[in-house]
Specification:
The complex is a heterodimer of chains A (277) and B (354). Chain A has 277 residues and is an alpha/beta fold. Chain A has 10 helices and 10 strands. In chain B, 43% of the residues are buried. The chains are: A alpha/beta (277), B mainly alpha (354).
């Protein structure tokens, strides 16, 4: 009755994925950031290479989000410099970072609540649109053709992230997990070179986490997007990232592959504490 | 059952992005336009046209202007009356001092002048939000009130401060009967509604809404807050200025600065809030509510045969109108446009429960 089923070859373990990890895309050098007397970051240096998935981990208050905000242009560090594609970056505003190719999602979702999923993702294409004011007001020429062209692009992201069914739903009405996915979609719509994800799996159940992991790996593999992510779930970090930076009290504690970091005594001490006496 | 999308398939993104996606909507807007352009001009009497429909249309235009700023870009303004005044006086002075220019060009230039002033008074929005911005835009209102009252150049040194608009001569076609004036206002209202709708479904409108909903996130996707906010102020003031020109030239004919006092700014603010923030349709509904309801309340006692003194009627009008606004805001804070939205959802399934 049943045809003989030939077992498919087992999928290659994640660690063996071959990704082209290239030159340094972004390097932060000796960054120090203070808010009044509080030192959020002191003398932190690391780099992010093209094509890799880079995790930033550390206990609460270690300065992880501050680090993303520095890369993103929200905060301006008092000391140190940032090299973007090998060139030192002067003080820049977030919208200039966006123009440079840096996209990001937030720890507590920052979507446009009054707009639909589709419109939210379409905002990610704003930098690609050139229509003049008159063309937009009359909905002619580029005003119309760009809308259609970008809609086509956005629909591909919608397919990719499997959110076609909520296309016309206002995002304020969506459940948490889907909102996180829409926020990822909006960041992807920018076709970024560097994607910063601030706790993309916070507050998700196991299934949603697995979905999100899959999406991040797919994005990285299919589009070649470099990803830097902050995450608390260690199993996720160890599974998907190529290299890990560990921060603690604003200082760099360790930097290396997941295995190296896991065995680092300083990291173990920060996470588990050390026996005194 | 009546309002269902069943069987209507959209096969291209162009169809999916149309303003009116459903066949029922297309028929509905065609009927409304036919009534407005053909039905009303033939059946309405002069009083209805002059005292109700013309002001309604002009205030709807002004409400669209404010709605672009407040409803779409989230920047509150109490200076809409001032921008209307600037448009009106700019058009008056252009017509007076440059008589060679066609009137339509005067209107356009007056709108652009209002837009420029709007950008200047929009500058505080780069630093402050909410109530503080409301107070800052109030400065525009007081400044305009003062300038047009105290600087006699604007009013051409007329001793009373009251000025009279030139005849409405559009390339030889003079609009002087109420019916013709109604057509002028209707044309401008349709045009404004269409252009505003196009703007809010394009890049610029999305960047306004992004600033409104979450300015930090807007910035990380590459929207410059300064460009977005100031363009909203410019477009809003342009539309308000245009409405001011119509209010002065078409509705009032001759006017004094008091015509554009803070009272006007507040009325427009109420229209936007009651009609529905972030909705072009809401601007029309809000304008209808604010202009037509008082007139209806005024006439109602007479219609049902109750004899009241004129003073009593006007006091009652204020009391009922005020309480209606309060009740309405409690029941449906998102305005008449949301009510219409809910109605459409209900009509999809009616008469079945689900």
């Amino acid at each position: 009755m049943l045809a003989t089923v030939t077992p498919s070859p087992p999928p290659a373990p994640i660690a063996q994925r071959q990704r082209a990890i290239g030159e340094v895309l972004l390097a932060v050098e000796n960054i120090s950031l203070r808010f009044g007397g509080v030192r959020a970051l002191s003398n932190v240096s690391f780099d992010i290479r093209k094509g890799e998935i880079r995790a930033i981990i550390g206990p609460n208050g270690a300065g992880k989000s501050s680090m993303l905000n520095v890369i993103n242009g929200f905060y301006h560090p008092q000391e140190g410099r940032i090299l973007w594609k090998g060139r030192a970056r002067s003080r820049m505003r977030p919208h200039e970072a966006a123009k440079g190719g840096i996209a990001r999602t937030f720890q507590n979702i920052a979507l446009f609540k009054g707009m639909t999923t589709l419109d939210n993702i379409m905002t990610g294409r704003i930098l690609k649109m050139r229509a003049s004011f008159i063309e937009q007001a009359l909905y002619v020429g580029r005003g119309r053709s760009e809308e259609l062209r970008e809609r086509d692009f956005v629909e591909r992201i919608i397919d990719f992230l499997e959110i076609a069914h909520i296309r016309h739903t206002p995002v304020g009405k969506l459940p948490y997990g889907l909102q996180k996915r829409v926020e990822l979609a909006r960041a992807l719509a920018m076709e970024p070179e560097l994607l910063l994800l601030d706790e993309p799996m916070a507050g998700m159940n196991l299934e949603e986490k697995e979905d999100m992991c899959r999406f991040i790996l797919d994005v990285n593999e299919e589009f070649g997007t470099t990803v830097a992510l902050i995450e608390h779930d260690m199993s996720v970090v160890m599974d998907i990232s190529d290299r890990v930076v560990v921060l603690d009290y604003g200082k760099l504690l360790a930097d290396g592959t997941p295995d190296q970091v896991r065995d680092d005594p300083a990291v173990i001490a920060a996470y588990l504490g050390v026996a005194h006496g | 059952m009546i309002y269902r999308e069943t069987g209507q398939f959209r096969t291209s993104y162009a169809e999916d992005q149309a303003i009116f996606r459903l066949r029922q909507d297309k028929i509905g807007i065609a009927v409304i336009l036919a009534i407005a352009w053909i039905g009303i001009p033939f059946f309405a009497d002069e009083y209805l046209l002059r005292a109700i429909l013309v002001p309604f249309l002009i205030l709807a235009i002004a409400a669209i202007g404010l709605n672009l700023l407040l409803g779409y870009c989230g920047q509150i303004s109490l200076g809409t009356g001032a921008f209307m005044a600037i448009g009106a006086y700019a058009a008056y002075n252009l017509a007076l001092r440059l008589p060679a220019l066609p009137l339509l060009l005067d209107f356009l230039l007056a709108g652009l002048i209002a837009a420029a002033v709007g950008v200047v008074f929009g500058l505080p929005s780069l630093r402050i939000k909410g109530l503080y911005l409301a107070v800052a835009t109030l400065a525009a209102q007081f400044f305009a009130d003062w300038a047009f009252l105290r600087l006699p150049w604007f009013t051409n040194y007329t001793p009373s401060g009251s000025v009279t608009a030139p005849p409405l001569d559009f390339f030889g076609w003079v609009a002087d009967t109420p019916r013709e004036k109604y057509f002028v206002c209707l044309a401008f209202a349709c045009l404004t509604a269409l252009l505003a709708k196009n703007l809010v479904r394009s890049r610029i409108g999305r960047s306004w809404m992004a600033i409104r909903d979450m300015d930090i996130a807007a910035e990380i996707i590459g929207i410059r807050p300064m460009t977005a906010k100031l363009s909203a102020f410019a477009v809003s003031s342009f539309v308000a200025g245009g409405a001011g020109v119509l209010w002065a030239f078409v509705h009032l004919g001759s006017w004094e600065p008091l015509a554009f006092s803070i009272d006007m700014s507040f009325r427009l603010l109420f229209m936007v809030i009651i009609g529905g923030m972030g909705s072009i349709l809401g601007s029309f509904l809000g304008a209808a509510f604010i202009t037509v309801l008082p007139i209806f309340l005024n006439q109602a006692p007479g219609l049902v045969g109750i004899q009241l003194s004129t003073a009593m009627v006007s006091h009652l009008e204020f009391m009922i109108f005020g309480s209606l606004i309060v009740l309405f805001l409690i029941w449906e804070p998102h305005g008449l446009a949301r009510l219409w939205q809910i109605g459409k959802e209900k009509m999809r399934l009616w008469p079945f429960p689900y």
